Amino acid sequence: MHDLKLHDLRCFEAVASEGSFQAAALVLNRTHPSVFAAVARLEEQLGLTLLDRSGYRVSLTEEGRQFHARARLALRDLEHLRSYAGQLASGEETVLRVVMGDVCPRPKILGLLSRFFAERSRTRLHLEYEAIGGPVERLMDAEADLVFHRANPSDPQLERIDLCQVGFVPVVGPGFLPFDREHDITPEAMRPFTQCVIRDTARRPSPENFFVIDGAHSCSTPDHMMKKELILHGLAWGHLPEWLIEDELRDGRLISIASRHIPGRIETVAAVRRRDRPHGPVAEALWLYLRAQGRDQTLEDRGSVP
């Protein structure tokens, strides 16, 4: 069998999809005889009868149906390959690697990404989740193009766009503590109780302490959703992002124990990238888009009434 011609495959696919040689010719902007000849040539090369021409309208034979299904996949893959080559030729990235950190308000960040990539379907978003030191480590190890996390603003290697602030609140479930909460609760008073912490995904964990009480028993979870479930079930206490527990704080399923001894904290969530690495067209477009979003958020904050 000689090499198949792409033109012949496309003519056959058009006839099979449109139901006639004339309709296929119109779709392909070809003449009826040229489409007819292309399909006949394909059948001869394959040694198969793909079309039943005995009726008023042509129809696929059983072999034709099976071959058509594979031919459609092959033509689609070819179009993807053509598009991929065009991206490479233009320098446009085919994949953008993004990491979301554990401090991120996921609905907000995912909404930003969804709106941006909806208009850039040729670039695939490779999205991962990391915690504590993991996001910045992936960035520094060249395993991510961009991360959404907190970052040291004084690090000269990093460039950042502040997007929002997230409050973290120390909470317990009702009945978790056997003593009165009217007085300020101290770390010493909480030492006998299990404290839930997020597991650091960094290969080289940071020594930074996020109010983990020395000497207290602790349990770890991979994310805040699991941490929230443990606290709701009375198995531990810990700090949770306020956006995640607004309803539970409102209806009393979770209780804040924030005080001067066990404070909450505020984290600034930022888009962060390396200064010392080149950024492709899509990565740069995403950065400009996020900068505009961060500027809009700043204006909104300035316009709000405390």
Automatic annotation (TrEMBL):
GO molecular function: DNA binding
Domain of life, source organism: Bacteria
Keyword Transcription regulation: yes
Keywords: DNA-binding, Transcription, Transcription regulation
Any Pfam family the entry gives: HTH_1
Domain HTH lysR-type, chain residue ranges per copy: 4-61
InterPro entries: LysR_HTH_N (IPR000847), LysR_subst-bd (IPR005119), WH-like_DNA-bd_sf (IPR036388), WH_DNA-bd_sf (IPR036390)
Regions annotated as coiled coil: none
Entry-linked PANTHER family: HTH-TYPE TRANSCRIPTIONAL REGULATOR (PTHR30126), TRANSCRIPTIONAL REGULATOR-RELATED (PTHR30126:SF88)
Family: Belongs to the LysR transcriptional regulatory family.
Record-given protein name: DNA-binding transcriptional LysR family regulator
Organism of provenance: Mesorhizobium shonense
